[in-house]
Each structure stands twice: as structure tokens, then as C-alpha cells.
Amino acid sequence: MLSYHNFSFTPPKAEIFKSLFLAEFYGADAAKAAVMPQNNQDVLTLLEATREAEKELTIPLITMSMGGLGAISRIVGWMYGSSVTFAVGKSSSAPGQVPIDELRKIIQLTKKLRVLRAIILIKLFRYKIKSTRACYALVLFIYPLNAWKDTPEYLFCARTLD
Hints:
By secondary structure, this protein is mostly helical.
């Protein structure tokens, strides 16, 4: 794994993307970027860079914003393409890490709520959805990542409309 850390600030999205790209270019099995946000926009910058890199690169990505502001990136990073996060086991190794038991529960809840949101949206729009293709388009809206075909919503579309 090739890793980029910036304990001072969050660089621009293009620089984060470049660090992840270079990891793949140099033959790494995985790429990691950890940055220190100064504000909420910095956290979004990291997540946007992760989403873009996930679309372009073939290796697993591990990204996170550190500190209290960045803790949310450890919870929702999977939605943007981060394959792994770090949590506190016995002791913290970086600022912003959440205790592992709490992080597991929070991630499970976010995944469950995302599925419920998607199913509710599909049911709300069902009367307008005339085809499986339109249903899948709604799923793509909810799941912008490449893994949308493995989602419960995709299976819901296939079962309900086919």
C-alpha cells in the first residue's frame, strides 16, 4: 500500500486524486490518503476526490479526513469508494478515530437507512416508473458508485418490474 498523509491541512481535490493515482501507477496493491480538514468543505473535498478516484482506478482505496471534523468520512467513506476505515481498538493511532464497536453500529445504520431511503424513493416514483430501465436509473441516482448492481434496490427493481 502506498500512503499519503497530510497532518496539517486538506490539499485541493486534484492533489488528493494525484496521490491516489500515483499509488496505482507505481504498482501499489492499494492507495491511502489521510488529510486534516480545517472545515466541513475540506471533508467534502476528500470524499469527492475519493469518488472520482474510485471511478478511474482499479486498486482499492482507503481515504479519510482526520480529527473531529473528519470523523464523518470514516462513517460514510464507503459510499464514496473507500474500501477500509480505521477505528479505535485498544488505543487510537490517529486523530478522529471512532471506537470500533460504535463505528460498526453507525456504519450498519447508515447502510440500512440508505436502503430504506432508496426503497421509499422507488415506491414513491413507482407510479411514474414504467420500465425496469427507469427503475435502474433511479438506483443509479441513489448509488453513483460502480457497485450499484449488487444493491438491494437493484434486486428490488428486477423483482418488482420484470
